[in-house]
Input
Amino acid sequence: MTDEEYLDFYGAECEGCAMVSGFIDEIEVEEKVSFKKLEVWHNSKNQSLMMELSKERCHTVPMLYNRRTDSVLCGSPTKDDILKWVREQKSK
Output
């Protein structure tokens, strides 16, 4: 498993994932955090990891995961949603 605290599970051809990826790029700079990006539609190992970590909480991409807090954010969140989630994770 990767050492990064934040994981971004995405699908290569997923338009919503591409939008979220842009938000994440901005948030990484703003909040000084790092996301490990893991493609799941064409990588069965990453897909298995996503299913294992989601614990049935999420069955879609994009799925954001925090290893330290075991928290999941999935669907197509806005930049504000992701920013709020990251800040909540940092305060735990």
User: Anything to note?
Assistant: The chain has a mean pLDDT of 93.
